[in-house]
Amino acid sequence: LAFGVAQSGNGLSFLIASAAQLLIAAVGWRAAYGIIALGIGAPVLLLLLLFIRRRPRDLGLFADGEPDQPANPAGAAHRRSLRVVNAAWAERRWTLGTAMRTYQFWALFAANFLVWGVSFSLVTTHHAAYARDSGHSAGLVALMLGVYGIANLVGALCGFLSDRWGREVTYSIGAAIACLGLVALIFAGDPSREWLLLSYSVLCAFGLGLLAPAMSATHADLFQGPHFGAINGLIVTGFALGATLSPWAAGYIYDNFNSYLPSFLFSIACIVGACAAIWVARPSAVRSVFVAPGGR
User: Phi and psi dihedrals of 44, rounded to 5?
Assistant: First the structure.
């Protein structure tokens, strides 16, 4: 749930992008960029000053992996929501080096590369241009972006489902919904099918929003501990690596073949591949979610 709330900001960014277009039209590029810079920088700085602390102990909390956590019923009830299945793995003090020597680490790296670096980055870079080239109005495209943001936010807030259904199952459901959305996008090439363009926004954005918290929780389920920051940081560079290549590749394909179809089909394949990678990593083989006695 915590990952879902944190990642719901991604959906809000699409809403801000739609508002930015209106701002540019009203005051021009230069003034709009200045306003956007202040609108982003000032709230972030304020949040950092108010809430960020250097150590968990500053908030009365304990870092993952610390053995001296006090016994308290509330904390115990929370910890019971994850049942350790592989004690040897769970008790290991993971470092970046030891994590990199496991196939689970590289499965997660591949999943980030495929679903975020390739599929998400490729589609969100080109979906507006694709819609406009297909003959859809600028107003409808703006609505598509707004709907995408709202659906992504809702999906992320549903991240608590992975705490009930498990990471792999929730991720698979989100991946399937996102793939259906991309199929809708492919058939939205006909400008008379406006409903398909909006269906793409709802399905793809919700599906990706749903699987995102499950993926982040998977990283923590497998490699939590004092060095999780370094481990997680390298895993998500798969996103950055894919994002440097996929938008350019899709543009190159369109320029030479006058079609986005190969790129969108490849995006679907990447989501399926990422889903398979999560099942290969299999976080439930280390920590399995379950409802504790008396829980809901």
Answer: -65, -45
**Among 198, 236, 221, 213, which residue's Cα sits nearest to residue 154?**
213
* Rounded CA separation 147/224 (Å): 35
pTM summary value: 0.79
CA distance 120 to 7: 15
Radius of gyration of the chain (CA): 21
Contact present, 191 and 134 (Cβ < 8 Å): yes
Q: How far, in Å, CA of 280 to CA of 219, rounded?
A: 13
3-state secondary structure of 1: coil
Q: What is the pLDDT of residue 73?
A: 46
Percentage of residues in the chain having pLDDT higher than 90: 57
> Of 117, 122, 112, which Cα lies nearest the Cα of 264?
122
pLDDT tens digits along 110-134 = 999 999 999 999 999 999 999 999 9
Average pLDDT over the chain reads: 85
Q: Closest by alpha carbon to 220, among 163, 283, 271, 277?
A: 283
More confident residue, 55 or 248: 248
DSSP class of residue 116 equals I
Q: Give the distance, in angstroms, between the CA of residue 273 and the centroid of all CA atoms in the same chain.
A: 16
For the cut 90, the answer to whether the pLDDT of residue 59 exceeds it is no
Strands 287-289, 82-84: pairing is antiparallel
